[in-house]
Amino acid sequence: MLNKLAGKLCLAAALVVSSRVMFADTIIGTGAASNQMWQTWNAGQADNSGSFYWNHTSWDGGYENVGSCLTTANCGLTDAPGALPFLGQANGQAFSNFYFAGSGTPVTATLEAEITAASPYDYIGWYDVEDPSQFGIIFSPTSGTGATVTFTPSTEYGLFFADTASNVNQHFLSQSTSAYSNDQGNQHFAVFEGSDNTYYVGAEDLPFSNTDLDYNDMVVKMSGTSAVPEPGAVLLVAVGFVALGASRFRPSKKTIEV
């Protein structure tokens, strides 16, 4: 019986450790039906042709726009996810405005790449849709590639990108027509949708009057946060239950009088 109990606990522990929580936050694109927001493409189309709004020649190198970052090793992503569908119109142009309808649960973000001379001045963060004066910084100039943070935004939130260099000093909202956003009407974010509603977000850090439109200045992966125990903790719990079972099912000693 003890062996059966241990086996069941090991199986339960394995199931708990391997479980994942789907990222429940969804994107709302102004004036767009949900089934018309995501456009497909293939790796060969990341060709600097301008066919999509993020598909331009990067000042950092011939094939380093965000599409190339996702499909090749050019940008140093440890696990390039491939040609994920991007948030945009059927003609390849961007939506001027989008935001996230959140679930109120934490979000995990990883800084996948940062390819810009302005990295000592760049910030990316979230803001409350109803009150953009309420915001939080996700990654700052001191964050290095590979950094991972967990943050809890408001239930409806957008993204902002700020370039604080003295010759720029502007910030850009994912709701680009907002009165709070500089370079109004120009979308500074490119969003790609992975599995389980994981998003890869590429950002452009300069106003459109003087930029390359490569959207690789920061590339951030956003996903859900799984609240499962660490494998070691699960193992300790399992061992504890086995010990409890052992004490429960151990035969009691009989006292023999001499």
Primary descriptors:
3 helices, alpha+beta, disordered C terminus, single chain, six-stranded antiparallel sheet, 16% helix, 258 residues, five-stranded antiparallel sheet, 2 domains
Description:
The protein has helices at 2-18, 66-71, 231-249; strands spanning 26-29, 38-39, 86-87, 98-101, 107-113, 122-128, 135-139, 148-151, 156-163, 170-173, 189-193, 199-203, 218-224. The protein is 16% helix and 25% strand. The strands form three sheets. Strands 1, 4, 6, 7, 9 and 10 form a six-stranded antiparallel sheet that branches. It folds into two domains: 2-11 and 230-249, no CATH class; 20-224, no CATH class. It has 258 residues and is of the alpha+beta class. The radius of gyration is 24 Å and the shape is globular. Residues 2-20 and 227-258 have low confidence and may be disordered.
- How far apart lie the N and C ends? 34 Å
Count of separate DSSP helical elements: 3
Structural class: alpha+beta
Q: Compute the average pLDDT.
A: 82
What is the CA-based Rg, rounded? 24 Å
Largest pleated sheet:
6 strands, antiparallel
Q: State the low-pLDDT regions, or none.
A: 2-20, 227-258
Number of strands: 13
Q: Helicity, in percent? A: 10-25%
Number of domains: 2
Q: What proportion of the residues form beta strands (DSSP E)?
A: 15-25%
Query: Which sequence of SSEs, written as H and E, runs from N to C?
Result: HEEHEEEEEEEEEEEH
Q: How would the global form be characterised?
A: globular
